[in-house]
Amino acid sequence: MSAPRLDFPSFRLPPQAEALRAEVRAFLAETLADFPPAKRVRNWTGADPEFSRKLGARGWIGMTWPKRYGGHERSYLERFVVTEEMLAVAAPCAAHWFGDRQTGPSLLRYGTEAQRQRFLPAIARGEMVFALGMSEPDAGSDLAAVRTKATRVEGGWRVTGQKVWTSWAHKADAFFVLCRTGADEGDRHNGLSQLIVEFSSPGVTVRPIRFMNGHHQFNQIYLDDVFVPDAMVVGEIGQGWKQVTSELALERSGPERYMTTFPLFVELVRRLRGVEDPRAEE
Fold it and tell me: Is 236 part of the annotated catalytic residue set?
């Protein structure tokens, strides 16, 4: 018995979204004209601050955010269209990606007014790069096992610990650090908080983790008694687990979960043209 034929009917976007798609596609065709396929396949995680600033100038970062924070109050569908087109050509988005996808929305939800005014407009302009300080050595995928510790001092916190697999930390200005600010009393999800740490702070050391081919994207970060003022606390002390899981929901639900391989698929189809293989006709 043969499997039934699958039919995926097309979905028609509103005219405004279609016009935006055409605008983004034309921009990318011109801006990334010299990108060869081999580079595109691995390049969507590339960090190109100049490219991000060009996107910011066009209003394509922080698209859904309030205008008073540098956003543009456009629809989530329009943001999806821009994101989809960027991923389809493996545009080098990492310089603004984490700020646009996670840091910005988290600051809108949990941040203070001063934090929003300081960081969000800079992210939206593509002028400030954020990284994510979650994973740690020996913790595997158990995020609640973080051991980076923040101790209360006058005017703020002293942070000591390590983070690992931190993408583009060597290019970033600041990052959210998930750390333990309270004692572990049996439930490791309690006593966690988030702090904004600037990479220019004394005591922060960034070391590369290189791929076998020498490519540098990941980093290990050492925090040695780094002072973080109270103004850099994100949300509430002790609510870090709630906050970080909401950010992970944003990370895991985007189109990059399937669109990152799209350039490879396009190149495969291109090479199969004219090939005498029945699989190329299916």
Answer: no
